[in-house]
Amino acid sequence: MSYSPPRDRLWFLRRRAYLVFVLRELTSVFVAWSIVYLILLLDAAMTGALPAFWAWAGAPWVVAVNVLAFAATAFHAVTFLNLAPKATVIRLDGWRVPDFMISGGNFSAWLVVSALILWVLS
């Protein structure tokens, strides 16, 4: 009979990096909710059911889930963009582009796309 040590179910609480990793993975559920919500909105717009959709979307629990989903999606995006320099190494003529430049480019692109979406929607 072989020895198997007891499993620590709260292993991710031992280090802040582990906790952030687990929280980031859990935020994927809220990212998926945001996608489903947008698909439902597009379907309502295409079928002419917008009044019914807005009535449903105005329910307190839907508003609460959307606020939580917004915060979780923002956390997911920020942590993803902060990890990009570790996954992407860019070299120009043998010079390694610093991490802050890769992150800065990613955050700048996010800002530009967000501003473009705001401009289109307004």
From TrEMBL:
Ranges that cross the membrane: 21-42, 54-79, 100-121
Highest taxon of the lineage: Bacteria
InterPro entries associated with the record: Fumarate_red_C (IPR003510), SQR/QFR_C/D (IPR034804)
Keywords annotated in UniProt: Cell membrane, Membrane, Transmembrane, Transmembrane helix
Gene Ontology cellular component list: membrane
Protein known as: Fumarate reductase subunit C
Organism: Acrocarpospora pleiomorpha
